[in-house]
Each structure stands twice: as C-alpha cells, then as structure tokens.
Write a structure and sequence with these properties.
alpha/beta, eight-stranded parallel barrel, single chain
Length: about 280
C-alpha cells in the first residue's frame, strides 16, 4: 500500500523575502504542505536564546494554520564561528545545539538536521580519522539529549562543494556507528546525494532506507533549486520513496528561486505530488 504523501516546507526562502511566520504558514498551507521545517536563524539572531514563551507563540502561529513544525535545519547558520571539531569552540557549539534540541521538542518537531558546513571544517593538521573520533565524542551527549527530548538528531551528508567532512551516506553511517546511540542517525538530501554518491538517488533510497538509520529525507534538485526546476528524475525518486514505504514528512529545501519563493514552493509541491503514486487520484476524489 502506498504511504500518504506528507510534504514539509523549509521556511528560510520565504523568510528571506520578508514574509513573516504567519504569512509563511498561509502560503505553505495554500500550496498543500502539512508543516514547516524551520531554520532557527529565521526566528531570531541568536535562536538558542529564545524563551519558552516565544517558542510557544511560534508553535501557536504555525498550528493556527493547521500546520505542524516537523523539525529544524540549518542549525548553526546564525553562528559562523561554531565548530564541532575545533577543541576551543566545541563546548560553546554544544551548548547551542543542546538548546536547539530542547526547542525543537517544545515546538513539536521530531528531527534536527545538522548540515551547517562551516561547523565541519577540519582544523589544520587533523586527520580524517581524528576528525571522525572527535565528532563521535562531540555528538554522543547531543544524542543523549535528543533521546531525552524524544527527537532524532541527523548528521547530513553534504556535497564536496560544501564540505570535505561527511559527504556520503557511507561516511555518515561511519559516524553514526561510532556514536552508537539510537537518537543519532543520518538522512538523504537529494541534491547533495546527486552530487556526491555513486548510486542514483532512487537506488540510494532503495538500498539505504531498508537498512534503517535514515531518519529524514530532503528533496531538491542537484542544481539546488526546487524539484521540477532542473533535470533530476523525481518520478524515479518518488517511486523509490513509495516503494520503501516512506511515510514520514519529506522536506522541500530549495536554495534557488524561480521568480519568487512562493512560486518555487508551488513548483516543488506540484512536482512531487504529480509523481507520488495515487496522489493526484486521491486529490480528485
């Protein structure tokens, strides 16, 4: 049986165009999204310092439009000096992430996505093996905190154009295995995977998701635009997701707009919906 399609919209493109949170919600709802995946930097300059009352207001604003917060991403974008590998910066970085984990749970989200390539710069003189060991030590207490708050923390494989550390799902699984805690997992980002993996994205989904440990999916084109704005075969990608029974929210995360953020989000939703087995039929009923 084909699982239901649940699309969540990454909110930063709308926020960057000046849409406030309520407007972001109205746009996402009108386009058929069921939730928002929030970039903390769209909420405050230092989002880890947001008060509980501010977080409750954010959640109410989103829920009022019939949407949910599905998770957080771009966790360290507001913190250009943050580092998971630099011993002099790791403690302060950990404090930020621990606060964001608690905030994600309070907002109703279930997943945090650690992309943030600038936080993964390997210091001069540190080998890849040393970096992997240091990252495992860094993320162990992060994973414990995520488990305590009932959320999952994902290390995101990114393309080599963005970072030299953790580029493939295999790289990420090495770190996940080293941390060895259920609340620390990895994910598949279609754009990064299209650039870094040997397998086609659809085949990557078919081989990796059934193994477990893939806790999140983000869809965008290898051109960093929305699905439907490039040449990636989203008919194959959606078919693979349906075949493996993916029923969790699928986040749409474009970086390059077509005309504006609203139209870009509309193209993405229409593209995925058009290819999801049975989706157009269900909408017509």
């Amino acid at each position: 049986m084909t699982p239901p399609l649940r699309l969540s919209l990454c909110n930063e493109m709308l926020a960057d165009e000046g849409h406030n949170l309520a407007a972001q919600c109205r746009i996402a709802k009108a386009l058929g999204y069921m939730g928002l995946e929030l970039a903390p930097g769209s909420l405050a300059a230092e989002p880890h310092r947001l008060s509980d009352s501010a977080l409750d207001d954010i959640r109410r604003t989103i829920n009022a439009e019939g949407l949910s917060v599905t998770g957080l991403h771009w966790l360290l974008a507001p913190y250009p000096d943050a580092s998971i590998l630099d011993p002099q910066k790791a403690e302060a970085t950990s404090e930020i992430l621990l606060a964001l984990i608690t905030q994600c749970a309070r907002l109703g989200g279930t997943v945090l996505v650690h992309g943030s390539p600038s936080s993964r710069i390997v210091p001069d003189g540190m080998s890849t093996e040393e970096a992997m060991d240091r990252a495992a030590g860094f993320f162990a207490p992060i994973a414990d905190a995520a488990a305590a708050d009932g959320v999952t923390y994902c290390i995101e494989p990114l393309s080599r154009a963005e970072t030299g550390f953790i580029n493939t799902v295999a790289d990420a699984r090495q770190l996940v295995d080293a941390v060895d805690k259920p609340a620390f997992q990895t994910m598949i980002d279609a754009s990064a995977a299209g650039q870094a993996e040997v397998l086609r994205v659809a085949d990557l989904i078919r081989t990796q998701v059934p193994r477990g440990g893939i806790a999140h999916i983000q869809l965008n084109d290898t051109n960093r635009g929305a699905p439907g704005t490039g040449l990636d075969p989203f008919d194959e990608i959606t078919a693979a997701l349906a075949e493996v029974g993916w029923s969790e929210p699928i986040a749409i995360e474009p970086f390059k707009p077509v005309i504006d953020a609203t139209i870009t989000a509309a193209i993405a939703a229409a593209t995925i919906r058009a290819h999801w087995p049975g989706e157009l039929t269900s909408l017509a009923q």
